[in-house]
């Protein structure tokens, strides 16, 4: 499927925004939150040793780095606050995250990389609790990647958190639905399968604390 003009324009507007702008547009004072967190768009902590919890995150289409900025860093900061930064490591999924990948249902390269990282985490860190997460096309990558991991690795997945999921409502192979939490605003057209980035799709930083509490409930630290 070739990218449509609407989808290209929509994602271009997406790229020009930022979590800070979105927060300001909602007239909510998050100054303290913005000052305190780690807002790096690239996280590669699986190679730095094992933590009680390992989060493998796939960014959205055309986001920077390997975790992006709209959903990943806000979620990570909230999770650090919920369970302690020393208890969790974050690993981004390196993949193209381009528009054609999204339009075809998610990057197959991203899915393979996510599956590889989950398998590596399970093997390298036998006691770590794996959390899979993704935003927008990254959520598609999680769906596709889970299909490629073994049942034994799937059993190591303690929680899955998805933001702005184009495959909203579709189950994940070998993962209990009680371990999965999906955040999709009613006005997010991406969650309805439409390639249009509305303001709601850029606003999942507001679900960061709720997502962190969900993970906290499903892990032990």
How would you describe this structure to a colleague?
- This protein has helices spanning 5-16, 19-25, 31-36, 72-83, 99-103, 108-124, 137-146, 151-154, 208-218, and strands at 53-58, 88-92, 129-135, 157-163, 180-183.
- The chain is α/β, with parallel strands linked by helices.
- It has a 5-stranded parallel β-sheet, with helices on both faces.
- The termini are far apart.
- Residues 1-6 and 18-34 have low confidence and may be disordered.
Largest sheet: 5 strands, parallel
Number of strands: 5
Alpha-carbon distance between the two ends? 45 Å
Give the strand line-up of the largest sheet: 2-1-3-4-5
Structural class: alpha/beta
How many helical stretches? 9
Helix residue percentage: 25-40%
- Uncertain segments: 1-6, 18-34
Task: Give helix and strand order, one letter per element, not per position.
Answer: HHHEHEHHEHHEEH
Fold topology:
Elements: H1 5-16, H2 19-25, H3 31-36, E1 53-58, H4 72-83, E2 88-92, H5 99-103, H6 108-124, E3 129-135, H7 137-146, H8 151-154, E4 157-163, E5 180-183, H9 208-218
Parallel strand pairs: 1-2, 1-3, 3-4, 4-5
Quick overview of this protein structure:
This protein has 221 residues and is α/β, with parallel strands linked by helices.
């Amino acid at each position: 499927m070739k990218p449509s003009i609407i989808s290209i324009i929509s994602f271009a507007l997406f790229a020009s925004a930022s979590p800070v702008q979105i927060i300001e547009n909602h007239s909510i004072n998050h100054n303290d939150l913005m000052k305190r967190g780690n807002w790096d768009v690239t996280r590669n902590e699986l190679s730095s040793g094992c933590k009680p919890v390992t989060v493998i995150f796939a960014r959205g289409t055309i986001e920077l780095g390997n975790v992006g900025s709209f959903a990943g860093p806000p979620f990570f900061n909230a999770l650090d606050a919920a369970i302690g930064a020393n208890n969790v490591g974050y690993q981004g999924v390196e993949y193209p995250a381009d528009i054609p990948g999204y339009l075809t249902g998610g990057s197959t390269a991203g899915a393979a990389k996510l599956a590889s990282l989950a398998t590596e985490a399970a093997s390298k860190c036998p006691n770590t609790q794996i959390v899979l997460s993704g935003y927008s096309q990254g959520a598609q990558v999680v769906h596709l990647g889970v299909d490629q991991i073994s049942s034994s690795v799937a059993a190591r997945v303690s929680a899955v958190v998805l933001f702005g999921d184009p495959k909203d409502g579709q189950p994940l192979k070998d993962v209990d639905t009680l371990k999965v939490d999906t955040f999709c605003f009613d006005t997010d057209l991406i969650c309805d399968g439409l390639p249009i980035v509305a303001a709601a799709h850029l606003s999942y930083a507001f679900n960061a604390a709720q997502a962190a509490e969900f993970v906290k409930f499903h892990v032990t630290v």
